[in-house]
Amino acid sequence: MMEFVGISASPGIARGRAFLFIEDKPTIPHYEIPASQVDHENERFLTALRQASDEVKALAKGREAKLFEAQILMFDDPDLKSRVRTALQEARSNVEWVLVQIIEEMSGKLAASDSQYLRERTIDFSDAGTRILGHLLYRPKARLSDVREQVILVTHNLMPSDTLGLDPTLVLGIAADVGGKTSHTAILARSSEIPAVLGLSDISRHVKNGDEVIVDGTAGAVIVNPDDATRARYEERKREWARKYAILKELRELPAETMDGKLVSIEANIETPDEVDSVLTHGGDGIGLFRSEFLFLQPNRFPTEEDQYQAYSSVLKAMRGKSVTIRTLDLGGDKVMPGISLETDANPLLGWRAVRFCLSRPELFRLQLRALLRSSVHGSLRIMFPLISGAEELARINTMLGEVREELRREKVSFREDIPIGIMIEVPSAAMTSDILAARADFFSIGTNDLIQYSLAVDRGNQRVAYLYEPFHPGVLRLVRMTIENAHARGIPVGMCGEMAGDPLATIVLLGLGLDSFSMGPIGIPLIKRIIRSVGVMEVETFVRGLIPMSSGAEIETAVRRWMEERLGFSSW
Ligand code: PEP
Ligand code: MG
Questions:
Q1: pLDDT computed for residue 63 by the predictor
Q2: pTM
Q3: Which DSSP letter does residue 192 get?
Q4: Cα 64 versus chain centre, distance
Q5: Ligand 1, atom 9: nearest CA belongs to which residue?
Q6: Among 3, 75, 83, 92, CA closest to 40
Q7: How many whole angstroms from 544 Cα to the centroid of ligand 1?
Q8: What residues sit around ligand 2, an ion, with C-beta below 5 angstroms?
Q9: Within 6 Å (CB) of ligand 1, which residues are found?
């Protein structure tokens, strides 16, 4: 039996057999070949090409065939075959090496092309190339969609695009070497209600396919090949968790109202339209954050205006008039889109991401704005812009939004004129100038995942510095307080959609600071509602006033824990 301790990223307990999903970069061998071996190497290439082509054709069956069209065309392309043959003759190197050079050269040309269509094919080309290479090196590309039975996923790291194929009914738990509480794997796990422990350093090197694994996402522990006593203990805990969770779910019909009558809104964060059901079953008052970038992470193509319009409209319709806040594309940083090489930034978290990227790609951004405006007729839409750093940036966006509105009016396409337009407060400069921004926005939503990372200079996904990532740091609380006060002084509401909003320890602090709405993974809603319904707003305001002068996050956290225990007996909930 082996035990690993990591970061508790999504609560619950799961037990099952390990499925190792490891995608480390292959080492490409390089050796010279005599002229007599050129034919043999070429034959190897043609065989691998056929195998890759058959594999993709099989994958394409029963799915949206368009996604694979470009790859299939590439496998049949005579130009690729002749390039490989010529390169083998000229370079006299093994075919894996030759192929990598060709993939890099052609991907580079496609990426630099003036044609948007060709630029978008870069990812198809590299995907096809990697597949052929996989066959040459006898390394078939693992895919999460290959999972066919219930498993515990053990991995080094998951890219957002890997998660597209993840089926939450088959993946019972996740254990990963890297990732923190606010990494996208954590967010996905919580939204799909999959227990997850991340930041385990090197668990993927110690576990074999088929090992028995217990993931305790509540405590942040992973047990590999448990003995009988440990297995029995965890089975008991699993039942206890299910019992508590059922009680919390019963709260879903009740409003999030404090004992002295302050009503707040408890909303949900979602990544894809299919999560709306979970929002409703957990009693969400609305959607406080729809991360639209997940639509853009589909391999092989950009979503069209129509794709986006359909996705946004379906969420608005399904929420039947409840508020839906859709955030415009927030790519870059930790959210990488296949086919757009943002990784050239030396420091991606401070680089070309979110609205910075959108403003420099107006043709993409306009499509999204058009789709959003058009969908507004189907429900109660709010549009939100991420990573705003100051008033000028917001002014540029508003100008573009005005132009898109004008364009739709000219085309006689209907949309609502009264859509609230808000911004995320996730850059310290935005919090510091929230008085200025409040005069130019209809609402704020505080994105603590980024606000904490930028104000404390701690990469949100780096487990080595995770101990410094403190939501209760006095510096963070002051920025939150300043933002709420400035918004209220100008009469606009403030929500929070960072993970702090779903942290039960933070609820009374945020309530005491005056937050109007909390948005979180649907699974967290019932517990936060229960806390809010158990306290008075006046008592928490008084308590929180006493926290502000404290000198450290640890001191504040201790005081909050003590209050939660003495006032609510929280540990036994
Ligand atoms: C945030 O930064 O708090 C946030 C909600 O946005 P994301 O986690 O998608 O960066
Ligand atoms: Mg963010």
A1: 47
A2: 0.69
A3: T
A4: 23
A5: 291
A6: 92
A7: 25
A8: 426, 447, 450
A9: 182, 289, 291, 330, 426, 447-450, 497-498
